[in-house]
Amino acid sequence: MEGSELWTILAWVLFWAVLIGAATLLLLRLLRRASVLVRICLVVVATVAVLVAGMVSAFNAMFISARDLEVMWYILAMASAVAIALSLVLGAGVSRNAARLVEAARRIGRGETLETSGPEGRRAAPAMTSELAALEQELEASSRSLAESREREAAIETARRELVSWISHDLRTPLASMRAMTEALEDGMASDVQGYYRKIIGQTEQMTAMVNDLLELSKIQAGTLHLRAEALDLYDLVSDALSDLAPLAAKRGIRLDGGGDRECMAVADGPSLARAVRNILLNAIIYSRPETDVHVSVGRDNGNAVIAVQDHCGGIPEEDLPHLFETGWQKDPARGTQGSLQGSYSGAGIGLSMVAGIVKAHGGSVTVRNVDGGCRFALKLPAGSLPEPSPAPASPKPGPLETTETNEGPGGTS
After folding, report:
1. Which letter, b or e, does each residue of 373-402 get, where b requires 16 or more Cβ atoms within 10 Å of its Cβ?
2. Which of 19, 102, 356, 357 fits as disulfide partner to 220, beta carbons 3.0 to 4.6 Å?
3. How is 357-406 classified by DSSP, letter by letter?
């Protein structure tokens, strides 16, 4: 074969390749919404067509015999059939796997959790390409994440409903009492008018404390609080709390005992931290047995400032410990409050959750454990400055707090 003939053959092959390639690209664009199977078959048919056109051009240029030309056509036909069959198998597999992924996406949309592994951990689904397998794994991970999110949302909604129900119960009791007393005053049936006035004021203080607690808790959970960092002597802060609550402790026959490092400095927001300490201390006074003591200590642990309150409440059931700092959780469904303490705390079941939010806003932690005859709450605060406010709503930002007290019982019964 001369050089001119070779260049002629190559020119014809290039012509057919460009022509068929352009036609294939146009068809692919027109069929861009078609099945993957159709598009794969189209590409294979185009490749075979380029090969056939090139072979025909070569046959015509080389003037081979009719018998040899017939054999070549048989070979081309067989090769084309095999290529198209393989493309159908490949396209069918890809299309089937794509359909499975579409169905998986539909299941995720319906709120189902994907489970593609067999009972022994082996995959029950047919093998996929690496790209489709990676997509399937991402769908599985998204499905699990959505399932966890739905569980958390359901738990939050349940807690919200219970909190609203419990608070409604707590508000209904003082409101009913106030209504009865005001009707008695209006009808002139009250024998002790001044006593009724004092009781109404006490009920009002109780409801005010509950409303303030809810407002502060909403700020903590929404991340809209602002804490002002200042150097504090925790010993003095605890001493002030002990002085404020000493009359209540004496009324209940509880002895308050404070101790620890006389100079335990920390960087914190004074009003909010004082509120947290008073909540814990008030909690211990209310639920300790009469004629016992409540011990408060201030110290350091691995460079962190620690305020510990130990009472004699009789201990907390182990199954209740994880729930103590949940908003609105209370063990006692009756949610009764002691009449002698009305006006001292809200009884809304949010005191410990507020303490946890305040301490967390300072970058610290609060823990509780059972000790001999009672339980021990420990507020641990890191040394140094306050943490930077987090933009996430779930992380409470620092902020100014009210000074009303709340309470949750050691068993979560207030």
Report:
1. ebbbbbbbbbeeebbebeeeeeebbbbebb
2. 357
3. HHHHHTT-EEEEEEETTEEEEEEEE-SSSPPPPPSSTTSPPP--------
- Kind of pairing, strands 304-310 and 293-301? antiparallel
- The CA–CA distances, whole Å, from 148 to 101, 113, 253 equal 21, 10, 48
The three-class DSSP label of residue 300 is: strand
SS3 74: helix
Residues 129-140 as b or e (16 or more Cβ within 10 Å = b): eeebeebbeebb
Phi, psi of 366, deg, nearest 5: -130, 135
Cα separation, 99 vs 113, whole angstroms:
18
What lies within 8 Å, CB to CB, of 366 at 6+ separation is 276, 325, 355, 356, 359, 377, 378, 379, 380
Nearest to 217 by CA among 401, 413, 411, 408: 401
Residue with tokens 């738990």: 155
Q: What is the mean pLDDT of the chain?
A: 75
Where are the extended beta strands (E) located within 274-364? 293-301, 304-310
Kind and range of the H or E run holding 259: strand 255-260
CA distance 368 to 70: 92
The residue with greater pLDDT, 409 or 376, is 376
- Give tens-digit pLDDT for 333-364: 443 444 434 334 444 457 788 888 888 888 88
* Confidence class for position 309, pLDDT limits 50, 70, 90: very high
Q: How many residues does the chain have?
A: 414
